[in-house]
Amino acid sequence: ELHALYNQYNDNTLTGKRNKVMLGLLVYQGLQTGELAQLETNHILLREGKVDVPGGVRRNGRVMQMEAHQVMDMYDYVLQVRPEILQMNPKRKSQSKIETNQLFIGEGGNCYSFSNLMTQLMRNVKKLNPMVKNAQQIRASVITKWLKNHNLREVQYLAGHRYISSTEGYLQNDMEELIEEINQYHPCLL
User: Are 132 and 124 in contact (CB under 8 A)?
Assistant: First the structure.
């Protein structure tokens, strides 16, 4: 479903292309919105097809591989779309154009309204799939998927969790879903 959501997001405007890159980092790398806001252009390693996610007080930094189709969208965004967004005139005359290294920016380089960018992105995503509640739900789905394919320590690294107990919380949620499914289809087993 996450992959389908990414593929369904087709908005060829400048901001639409930016939003698709943001959605890709949510869907494939499971980034938090705060991590998206902190990304700078030098964190994108286009030649390697990786993103260097900086750590913080409550999370570890990590280097994550991008999907092949994601690299092409990121390449287009960093080298063509982002510079065009920087050149756009800000809506308010009191704002001046800002030079910034922030990866995700608004018109004229405005990087102070990242929450507005996320609100716009999530509004568009909800139109594609009304089941999507917010970016945290997408991240939880990604981590749960990782837990099915990787060991606990690998998922801890991928999620940027400082403590293994944070990762185990997602494993617990996965167990609860399994118990619900067993109750639904085989109630006599419990």
Answer: no
Per-residue confidence (pLDDT) for residue 114, from 0 to 100: 80
Residue with tokens 């994550």: 64
Residue 41: helix, strand or coil by DSSP? helix
| CA dihedral of 140, 46, 112, 88, whole degrees rounded to 10 | -130
The model carries a pTM of 0.81
Cα–Cα separations (whole angstroms), residue 48 to 61, 64, 66, 71, 188: 17, 10, 9, 9, 52
Q: What is the mean pLDDT of the chain?
A: 86
Give Cβ neighbours of residue 78 (< 8 Å, ≥ 6 apart): 41, 44, 46, 103
Which region among 17-21, 55-59, 80-84 has the lowest average model confidence (pLDDT)?
Answer: 55-59
Question: Per-residue confidence at 96, pLDDT binned at 50, 70, 90?
Answer: low
Q: CA 14 to CA 9: how far, in whole Å?
A: 13
Residues 139 and 30 sit within 8 Å (Cβ to Cβ) = yes
Provide the β-strand partners of residue 111: none
Distance CA 133, CA 131 (A): 6
